[in-house]
Structure of DUF2256 domain-containing protein:
Amino acid sequence: MGNRPLPSKLCALCGRPFDWRRKWARDWEQVRYCSERCRRNRSRRRPGR
Ligand SMILES: [Zn+2]
């Protein structure tokens, strides 16, 4: 079994762990959000409610 554990981080917005993705290979150190959705929502400080 040659499974290497992928590096993972916690999303700065939703706080969920997410795994390394190929598209982040270059920017992994700068990635802070699990998805583009969270990335866009960062500008929103409070969830509207
Ligand atoms: Zn997130």
User: Anything to note?
Assistant: The chain has a mean pLDDT of 88.
